[in-house]
Amino acid sequence: MNWDEGSIELGWVVVEEANAYRLRKLTKDGDDNARIYVDQSVMNVLKWQRERQDAERERLGPAWVDHDLVFARDGFKLYRGEAGGPQDPEKVSARWRTMRNRLHLPEDFRIHDWRHSKVTNDLEAGENPVEVSANVRHHSPGSTMARYGHTRKDGARRLAASGAGRLGLSSLV
After folding, report:
1. pTM of the prediction?
2. Which of 66, 72, 142, 169 has the most CB atoms less than 10 A away?
3. What's the average model confidence in pLDDT over 75-91?
4. CA triplet 33, 110, 129: central angle to 5 degrees?
5. How far are the Cα atoms of 21, 116, 117 from residue 60, in angstroms, in the given order?
């Protein structure tokens, strides 16, 4: 993570194999270690989690094997004598619920909601769909617009009206 510039480098994905979880190098769209940019409030929440995890790392000493994960397996129950590695996504969700409660966020607010809210808000604010799509690592701006474009009805109406005005058709109304 680059705390100052508000970016997160995505290098790994957690996969389940034979009732265990392991890290696999992320290679979506052939882009190793992709960087996404997020709002400072997201970075603050992630920093709070990192600080909590750093305390756990210090407490466990050599039992902590660092994989540079934001929601790593803690030392509550050591797995093969170590902590710090990937964990069951349900446990990540449980950790998120704890953090969400401590931060007084709405009970139905999921960590993935930030991503969806950001895309919707960026598009409604008139941001370039190519940049929005690239930042959330969608396959194409077309797939971003297919998924999120339906929320932009008012923007589409304004665009249609301004286009008519530029063509001189607004006087026909």
Report:
1. 0.57
2. 72
3. 78
4. 55
5. 21, 36, 37
